[in-house]
Each structure stands twice: as C-alpha cells, then as structure tokens.
Amino acid sequence: VGQLTGGLAHDFNNLLAGISGSLELMQTRIGQGRLKDIDRYMAAAQGATKRAAALTHRLLAFSRRQTLDPRATDVNALIGGMIELIQRTVGPSVQIDTVCLPDLWPALVDPSQLENALLNLCINARDAMPEGGRITIETGNRWIDRQAAQRQDMPEGQYLALSVSDTGTGMPPEVIAKAFDPFFTTKPLGQGTGLGLSMIYGFAKQSGGQVRIHSNEGEGTTVSIYLPRHRGRAEHDEVPPEAGLRPVAEAGETVLVVDDEPTVRMLVTDVLGDLGYAALEAADGGSGLRILQSDARIDLLVTDVGLPGGLNGRQMADAVRVSRPDLKVLFITGFAENALLSNGQLEPGMAVLTKPFAVDTLAARIRELIGA
Asked: Domain Response regulatory: where (predicted)?
C-alpha cells in the first residue's frame, strides 16, 4: 500500500504542478494583456489533465473498479484494425507477426480497453528488445480443465486467448512474481510508471478472465490474456457521432443536472446551454428527487452516482422511474460503483459516462439519449 500511495502521490503532484502553474501563468498573462501566450499554457494544462485522467484510469483498472462497456467482440478484427498503429508505435526495427485462429470465439469485453491492453503489451515487448526483434500476436480458443484452472487460478471453462510474444531479454522468476504489482517497473527512472501490466491484470480479472506470463531469460516472453467465451455473435462498430456543440434542442426540452461538485454542474449546464437545452440543477439526491417529483418538464436526468444525503444517483433514478417510467438517465461517475448496475447491466434508457470526460463526448451522449 505504501508503494502504491507513494508512487501515486509523486505522479499526481508532478501533474498538479503543471496544471496549477499553467493556470497561474494564464491569469498573470491575462492581467498583463499578453494574450498570445494563453494558448501555450492552456495546452500544457490540458495535456497534464489528460495524463492525470489516464493515471486514475490505470489505477481503477488495477483495482477492478473502472467503468467497462463490454460488447460481443471479434478480437481478430480488433487486432487487424490495430496493426498499423502498433507498427508505428514499436518502430521499424521490430517485425510484427500475427497468427489468428480463423474460427475464434467472440469475447464479451470492452473493446477499447482490450485495444489499450494489446498496445501496452506490444510496447513492453518492444522495450524488451532494444536491438529490435519480432513480436507475435496470436489468438486461439482454449478449454481450461479443472487441473489447468487450479494451476492458473481461474474458473474452468472455454476461453479466448490473446497472446503477445517477443524475442527479447526475458524475465527471471523474481521479476515475474512482481510483474503485476502497481508501480513495479524494471525500466529506468522516468521511462515507465509500472502500471501497464497491473492495469491489464485488473482489466482481465474484471472481465472474468486472467493474465499469465511465460518467460525465460534470454529467450523472450509471452503474455496471454484469457477472456471467457461469449456465446453470441460479435457486434459491428457504430459510426461515431459528429463532434461540435451546435444547438440541437427542441423548444422547451429540459435537463436536470444533479452533482455535489459545483464545477461539474457548471460544466454540464454550460454544455447544455450551448446545445439549446434548458437546465435545472440540484446538489444532492433529495433535492434532485423533489424536482423530479414536481410537475416540471424533465427530458433527461444527468446525475453523479455518489451523492451526499443518503440517496445516491441510482436510487434517485429508480425512485423517479416509478412516476416517470420513460425518463432518460445519464450517470456520470468517477468509477464503476456497485450501486450503478442492476444484474450487471444498465436498464434501457440509461447510459454511463466516466469522469473526467471530454466536452464533445458529453454533448454526444446527451444528444444520443434525448434523441433515442
């Protein structure tokens, strides 16, 4: 725990220094009338914010508390769509080979998180081959029997296996034993957070699977992600919504925003105003429920899940759906609270957005829910 909190505090203090310093310089330059410097400081603050969001995301993945969006996924197609990005990332000195089983079972998994995991594994493999080498990405169907399940600490059954192998330096047993520990890294200072493998491990476990490492010093390493077989057809990717904040609301359409953090309420209501919606605000579940139980027109509820006052966002939404059964609900949350899901999934007309979020993403979710 000390290693985890110490590493976390170090990384966040660095990021906060960049954000705070950039904001102070923006304030100073505005006071001086030197507006041409503002964009540079704004970009620095936004970059540090995105890195901080990525860090918390990796921590939530390690603790198995990240918000996942599992879909029936064709992992072979996912790999095919990433090969160009992986090759650009690892560089020309590394050859990428794929050995994909044609009749691969689908997996019920968050495809964007699986993409992140695959890219992380390929980056680790590249770093283990400083003079270049070969990375092999392989998929297969695996039946894990009782003995294998006990040996690999996973339930017996049918799994899809995604493996990344390299021809690098390999790892001794003592390094393999610590490989999934948060902030453990063998890379030089400043070249790795030590969260990559722990994030992949947490993601796999949260998805009902497992991660295993096979390595010999001087002979390379294979990291395999096991994901439970999904008995259904893989979904096809949807066309992403158009970006931008053009007014789209119809006359009188109203959104209730419930969040105990004033800054978040301000952000969401400003986006709603840009989209042409009227906005109502509440700071806790009780206040939000009173508005919802009134005669006010409410077309969408946007609420945090963790609210003060004894009534969380999910409880408030469930309570109001008795009288407003068709009310659309967008949950905004810092992590995947257990209170959010009922039987492992959201009900129709509900969606979730993980903090921190891009303004365009928030706008797209709002348009999508109200227009459905």
From this structure: 254-370
